[in-house]
Amino acid sequence: MYSEVIKLKLKTIPDQPGVYQYFDEGGTIIYIGKAKNLKKRVTSYFVKTQDNAKTRILVRKIRDIKYIVVDSELDALLLENSLIKKYQPKYNIQLKDDKTYPWICIKNEPFPRIFSTRSMIRDGSTYYGPYPSVKVLNTLLELIRDLYSLRTCALDLSFKNINEGKYKVCLEYHIGNCKAPCVGKQSSMDYKISIQHVEAILKGQIHSVIQYVKTKMMDFAAEYKFEEAQLMKEKLEQLEKYRAKSTIVSPKIQAVDVITALEDEKSFFVNYLVISNGSIIHGITLEVQKKLDETQAEVIQYALLDLRDRFKSQSKEVLVEIDIDNQFPDFKFVIPQIGDKKNLVDLSLRNAKFYRLEKLKHEKITNPEQHSDRILERLRKDLRMQDLPKHIECFDNSNIQGTNPVSACVVFKNAKPSKKDYRHFNVQTVVGPDDFATMEEAVYRRYARMLAESSPLPQLIIIDGGKGQLGAALKALERLGLRGRMTIIGIAKRLEEIFFPGDSIPIYLDKRSESLKLIQHLRNEAHRFGITHHRNRRSNNAFVSELTEISGVGEKTFEALMKQFKTISAIKNASMESLSACIGKSKASIVYKHFND
Question: For residues 577 and 413, what is the distance between their CA atoms, to the nearest angstrom?
Answer without folding.
Answer: 49
